[in-house]
Amino acid sequence: SQWHWHDIAIATLAQSKAWNEVKIRFPMAYSELFADHALKHGVPMPLAMAVARRESGFWNEARSPVGAEGLMQLMPSTPRLVAKDLNFPVSIAQSLNDPAVNIQLGTAYLGQMLQQFNDNRVLALAAYNAGPGRVKRWHQRKAPLDAWIESIPFKETRAYVKAGLLYAGIYRQLNGGVQPIVFPSEIMQFSDSDPLLEGLQPMVQPPSL
After folding, report:
1. For a Cys-Cys bond, which of 47, 137, 173, 201 suits 168, CB 3.0-4.6 Å?
2. Is 63 helix (H, G, I), strand (E, B) or coil?
3. What is the reported pLDDT for 78?
4. What tens digit of pLDDT does each residue of 73-102 get?
5. What is the pLDDT of residue 32?
6. Is the Cα torsion angle 46, 50, 52, 57 positive or negative in sign?
7. Which of 180, 107, 99 is nearest to 145 (CA)?
8. Of 47, 51, 38, 1, nearest to 22 (Cα)?
9. For the chain, which ranges sit under pLDDT 50?
């Protein structure tokens, strides 16, 4: 952790079940970059950091089997689209292992997903992982929020959404704030008569940390 090998520190603590080492398991890596770009693109900073933590454990050299790269695991096609909207040079957008580039483009893309889905983090996280087209089709199925999450066809995306919401709450707490796992406005977008509105706590099984 002191050497900033955050991904290895996170994996090692998980392997040893050292769940109480929260500050090492949820490092404030690249916090200035996240704060800057989250503000620019209308993204809650804890949510942006939650995505990076879930995607790569803050490993800037991460590369997935399907070709996603960097801290926020961007596919090569995604930054090209975002860079065009930002008037960002495509040549620089290809430097996805550069944390400054990856965080800027990844946060901008996450901001686009939030805009598409009315600031609903549940839908935005699902779209970031599985694509907005799929999420729009899935959201046509009317169900309370917890049931809708459990009905996501992809196991990876189900786990991704749960982890993203939980991690965002942890990062908010580490920054001195408190927030529910989901907001009332997010619950209402799934069902106006959702009984969860009373407790504001989704009955989804929490993901592994």
Report:
1. 47
2. strand
3. 80
4. 998 888 777 877 777 766 666 688 999 999
5. 96
6. positive
7. 180
8. 1
9. 193-209
Q: What is the pLDDT of residue 192?
A: 52
Which own/partner pairs from 78-85 qualify as long-range (CB within 8 Å, at least 24 positions apart)?
78/105, 78/109, 79/105, 79/109, 82/108, 82/109, 82/112, 85/112
Q: How far apart are CA 26 and CA 31, in angstroms?
A: 12
Confidence (pLDDT) at 72: 96
pTM of the model: 0.87
**Which among 21, 32, 55, 150 is annotated as catalytic?**
55
Structural tokens at position 175: 């920054």
- How far, in Å, CA of 102 to CA of 114, rounded? 18
What confidence score (pLDDT) does residue 203 get? 37
- Residue listed under structure tokens 């694509």: 131
Contact residues for 104 (Cβ-Cβ < 8 A; gap 6+): 33, 37, 86, 88
Q: Return d(Cα 102, Cα 169) in angstroms, integer.
A: 23
Q: Which residue has the tokens 């009317």?
A: 142
Tell me whether residue 198 is one of the annotated catalytic residues: no
**Number of Cβ atoms within 10 Å of the Cβ of 23:** 10
CA distance readout (Å), 169 to 16, 45, 94, 127, 175:
23, 11, 31, 19, 10
Distance (Å, whole) CA 16 – CA 24? 13
Strand partners, 163: none
Structure tokens at 23: 């500050």
